Amino acid sequence: MRRRNFIILLGAVFAWPHRVEAQGAQKVWRIGHIFPAAPSVVGHFADSFERRMVDLGYYPGRNLKVTRRFPEPGHVEDAVLELLPETGVLVTWTTVGGVAAKRLATTIPVVFLAVGAPVDIGLVESLSRPGGNMTGVTFESAIDTYAKRLQILKVPTNCLMPLRR
């Protein structure tokens, strides 16, 4: 019985890997984040974005590098051009930022946020299949909704019920 245990132990030792390889470094995701407004106005959105990335397992300095820019609306294109060489994904807010990113960032993925009518202004082909390198979140799916909002505001006063106390 001892001999059998010795042979099993010897086989286990030789089957064990003779060298240990180091783990590969984690990929660092590089995100460029453009807010066409003052940091005092939209800085909390940037902070919330980074907190949510941590919740998802992406840690700044470890596997995530977020570069923020807060250009004035007339200088968004300069901010996009500045971030392009060091960015893997570009996140931009507002319609102005989305249009600038569409024109300049043709090779990297672009995520736009808070853009009005992206199909109508040519950012994406359709909401269900955006195509190209652009995707994002819109607060208006079509220009027709603006007209509907105005119709709702123009409700005749005789249709309103009086308040009862």
Describe the structure in your own words.
The chain is of the alpha/beta class. The protein is 36% helix and 19% strand. It contains 5 helices and 5 strands, in the order αβαβαβαββα. It has a 5-stranded parallel β-sheet with strand order 2-1-3-4-5. α4 (94-104) links the parallel β3 (89-93) and β4. α3 packs across α4. The longest helix is centred in the first third of the chain and has 17 residues, at 39-55. The radius of gyration is 27 Å and the shape is elongated.
Q: Name the CATH homologous superfamily.
A: Response regulator
User: Mean pLDDT score, rounded?
Assistant: 82
Total number of β-strand segments? 5
What is the string of helix and strand elements?
Answer: HEHEHEHEEH
Percent strand:
15-25%
Strand order of the largest sheet: 2-1-3-4-5
By CATH reckoning, the class would read: Alpha Beta
Low-confidence stretches: none
Return the structural class.
alpha/beta
Task: Compute the number of structural domains.
Answer: 1
Shape: elongated
Q: Helical segment tally?
A: 5
**Proper CATH architecture:** 3-Layer(aba) Sandwich
- Largest sheet descriptor: 5 strands, parallel
CATH names the topology as: Rossmann fold
